[in-house]
Amino acid sequence: MIRLGYACISVKTKNNPNKKTTVAQLNKLEPQARLKKLRQILQTNFFNLMDLLAYNVENHIFLYRIPSEFVPLATHTVAENWDWAKEFAWDFQKAGEFIRRKGIRMTAHPGHFSILNSEKPAIVQSAITDFSYHARVFDLLGLDDNSVLVTHIGGGIDDKAAALDRFATHFEQLPDSVKRRLVVENDDTSFTMVEALELCERIGIPMVLDIHHHHCLNNGENWVDYLPRIIQTWGDRTPKMHMSSPKSEKDFRSHADNINPDEFVNFISSLTQYNVDIILECKNKDDALLTLRREMKKRGVEAEAFASKS
C-alpha cells in the first residue's frame, strides 16, 4: 500500500512552520535583541508545526517534509552563539512524542546549495554542516531512520565519473548521524535514475526515485525494470519516492499545480506489491493531495493505507 504526503507548506491552513528572518535584519539588532528574535521565530514554528501535524492527522496524512528553515539561520554564523537545541529541548521532546505516537513519517530535503560532490572544500564543509543540522533536528525529535535527508548528487556533469567518485569520498567524511539518514534522489538535469542507483548501491544508502525527474532525464531505461533494485537499497526501511506532473509539454521540467490522475494510476500500478511512501511535489501542496484522493475515489482506485495510531 501507499501513503501520500506533501512538502513543507499547507495551502489549506494558515499556520506553517517556515517563519524566518534574514541576516540583514538581524545585523540591525543588538546581540540580545537578535537572540530574542530568533527565539520568537522558532517558538512560532513549533506552535505552527503542532497545528499543522494535527491538521495532517485529521486528514489522514502521515507523511510530511519539514521546511529546512524550521530553525531560523541555524547554520549561519549570525546564530552561532544560540544554543537552540538546549533552549527548546522540551519543545523537541513534546513534538517528537506526538509524531511518534501518531505514526507520522517526517523527512527533509536540504537546500540545493548543499553540494557534497563539490571540488571546493568550503562548499563540501557547508553541505556537511547543513546535513548535520537537519539530522540533529530529527535526532532531537527522537525519530528513527525512516526520517531521511534527501539530496541530489550535485554538479560535475562534464566528468560524471569524477563527480560520482567525489560524492563517495566525501560521504565517508559525514558524521554517523548524517550517514544513517542521507538518501540520494535522481535529478532532472545531471544524474539519471541509473547513475543515482549505482551510486547508492556503491556506498550503501537508499535511493529516492523521482518519477518526474526520470521522465525528464534518462537514456531510454524503463524505470520498472530497475524497481526491485531501488526497493532493495532501502533494506528494512520503507521506500520513499517523489511524484509530480509536468506543468506543460513546453515547460516539462516545472511542477504542475496538481497531479495528473492518469499519470498517478500508471505510476502506482507498478508499485502494488510494495509499501511505498510518496511525496507529491505540487504547487498546490496538501490541496493537490486531497484533490488526488477525490479523483481516485471517483475511479474506485484504492491506493493509500491510513496508518493512524491512537
What does this structure look like?
- The protein is 44% helix and 11% strand.
- It has 310 residues and is an alpha/beta fold.
- It has an eight-stranded parallel sheet with strand order 3-2-1-8-7-6-5-4.
- Helix 2 runs parallel beside helix 4.
- The chain has a domain at 2-16 and 107-299: Divalent-metal-dependent TIM barrel enzymes (TIM Barrel, Alpha-Beta Barrel), CATH 3.20.20.150.
- It contains twelve helices and eight strands.
- The model has no long low-confidence stretch (mean pLDDT 94).
- InterPro entries: UvdE, Xyl_isomerase-like_sf.
- It comes from Brevibacillus choshinensis.
- Rg for CA atoms: 19 Å
Q: At the fourth CATH level, what is the homologous superfamily of the domain at 2-16 and 107-299?
A: Divalent-metal-dependent TIM barrel enzymes
Share in helix: 40-55%
What is the highest CATH level, the class of the domain at 2-16 and 107-299?
Alpha Beta
The biggest sheet, with number of strands, parallel, antiparallel or mixed sense and barrel status, is: 8 strands, parallel
Calculate the mean pLDDT score and round it: 94
User: Into which percentage range does the β-strand content fall?
Assistant: 5-15%
Tell me the distance between the termini.
Answer: 20 Å
